[in-house]
Protein 1
Amino acid sequence: MIDKNSIATFLNDVSKNFDNFCSLYNPSGKVDTQSWNTPMGRLDVTTSSGKVFEKAGMIYCDLEIETPPVLAEETGQKESKAKILVQEINFYPVSPLIPRGYIELRANITDKTILAGGTDIFPYFPEAEEDVSFFAEGMKELCTRHGKDYAKMRKTRAEFFISKYRKGKVGSHAGIYSFNLEDKDFDFFKDMAETFFKSYADIVERGKMKPFTEGDRDLKLKIQGLWAQWILLEDEGTKYGLDKGIPPEALLGAILPPNATF
């Protein structure tokens, strides 16, 4: 079984990638880091704001919780108490012509270790077909390298990120998600993080110099308002974390957009 230290070391490397990404694209921006000690464990949140990203947020959680029933059923974990390591990263660009980037990585450790998570991009305009195709191709190649079924993992991603109220998809659905990865999938898990940063960097480079209008930005704020509504009303992970006592200023401060129009 993969031990907690191995997973924590990997997630620490992902944190360094996040820091380097922010240093590259928000070199003179503002960086804020806060930590919370909760009854369930420790949370660390880092946010960056600057020229390319109006907000880049990362939350890292090292918690002990009751295994959610739906997860226990999905994974076959028997013990009620679980050690949970969670890392979620959201990049909200200044330019509406750069999609928002997202990756979530988690480990549930009981009598066995279950890895879960995924990644996607969230375009502001339907015309962002080039970015969506590029990201999808990167995910396909990732899955091929590790013998994974891209279509199946993409379907999991698509079915979870749907608004039941607005009857529309959330994100591009070019990305992937899995609720149940095993020890043998750890290399795939690590490669998913590397592939996300490489693919998203290429997308950011293509879009960062493209001119945009105030009308483009107004549309971006409206779409960010729709995302915020989905996160607050429909995202099961967010609701579960808040119900279990994660401070709203920690969780929502890391994942919500910095500005939105409702």
Protein 2
Amino acid sequence: MVALQLLGFGFYSTAWYILILAAGYRMRYLTCLGVTLASIFAVYTMPSGVFLEAARCVLGSKETGMKLGESTSTVILHRILYIVGFLACTALALFALLSRGSTSSIDLVELASIPTVTIFGLVVLLYFSSNPQKIRPVLNRLLRFLQPIVTRIQRETVVEGKADRFLDEYNSGFKRMVSSRRHMVMSFLSSIGDWGCSVAILWIVLLSLDTSISLWVVMITISIGKMIQMTPIAIPGMLGVYETAITTVLALFAVPVSIGAAAALLSRIVTVWLELPVTGVAAYHYGYKLVTKGTPG
């Protein structure tokens, strides 16, 4: 499980790294991996998953020389490809279970509710990514909120009143990336690889508990868990919420609650508690250390 989790880190970083190349910039792969790990640490220690992406936007800009808008476009497109990937796999798994009669129509409605909300959010994200000027008023407020963070890392950067330039940079970077089909496909496949590692970890845990379960069920369970995990709720790492979601979905497929809860907790030992030291070191080096350097003595 530890090996799979480390492999998942590699896939996740590679997907973003490929998009940075597609945008026309260069970053050492180990630097990309370090920045990614630092941003993951943020989601476990701060009360919102939004910090995960905000940290990558700022640190990605710092390490590559990208404009903040361009860096943001790489992070947003990475997230879009990741969501599209596991939604497609979820649809495939649901179809496979229905065709085998392994789930009822009532269970299907319950399972499809969260993916439906996620699809709606994805459509909204795609719309505003294609029409960035629509969010200018909201962006002005967001940039004012991010000003203290950005200026501590890049002291020369002033974001106040720069919404138009930011949106132009975002639009330019987004169009460059989507125009490269080869890079898009490679990044998409890397995102699928990362998601597949998460599926494999839970499957191994269930097998170790002597629970025979379809891989399709595990795929759906992880997908629901990931969707819940992306909800911007003020709970660091969605601790407790994620485990409840995993246990509930497994229970729908006749897995005893005690087994489902044990599987959720055991998988989190690898996906959270063993991650913290690794991501914490990266966060110090690429985050707090850079902030310290950027602060006047």
Protein 3
Amino acid sequence: MWFVYILRCADNTLYTGITTNIDRRIHEHNTDNRMGSKYARVRRPVILLYNESFTNRSEVSKREIVIKKMSRDEKERLIFQYLPS
């Protein structure tokens, strides 16, 4: 299983990525200077706001590209729709 995810960084920016293990990846972004992304490393802590699951890397990569091309407002709407009511 593959996941695309959106994080909110401490400076209120949004970061989008893909992984096979969300918990491990969030931990890496928040604690690991080698495995965490360079972008998130200097904007800690990060929190998970959104994720979608896919069966293969090709599908998740295509979705990641779509999300990364979205404006911030579009990403915020996507996140808002995902939140439990």
Protein 4
Amino acid sequence: MPAYFGAFENLTLAVFSSVLPKLPGKLEASWDGVRELNWRMEDALQHPKIQKTQEEINVLMGLPRNAIFQPPKREEELFVFHPGCDAPVPSFTRPTVVDEDGDEGHEFFVEDPETGDLVSHGPTALEDGKDGDSGCWYVVLHKPAVVLRAKASVKAEMVGRKKTGKSMRVQKVVDGRWVQLHSEELPRLGVTEAWAPIDGAEMGLPGQPLLQKM
């Protein structure tokens, strides 16, 4: 039964994914988009004609006539379906290193023969880099918000906003003027790359920091 419903959900989402972006408002091709559609349909389903059409759809799908389709809850989503194969691929916030055995990691530990304790040994990627900026968090200082851009330029396309007091995880700092958002920040923006300015001079506000490292 779980396998059946898992396959049913994947098939259903595949159909929704092709339809949702074409609807007014261009809903997101995901379970969030399905939830938004259900919320918008609550009032419409009070109309007898709409109810009848929904019942006919249920019958065609092999469901009970009065069935109510409920997308999985957020906490139940272990995997997010991306029919367009456009999901962001998460990566480490810091580059890995390789030891003498060819193993890859951020840091390596070996057992001390005298004490039996594990101690750091060999190359490490966990020390602060040149700018100390790998895999860190910044908080927005600028009011009312900081504009997120597709590239590290004020002329680049706007891809979102971060309000004052909100934090963001970054993976790279460029010249102390721009931060590149970590891949974990990108799904909610629906983009593959996003940047935020640190220096107010980028926006004609010299001497005013827009972000602060946490």
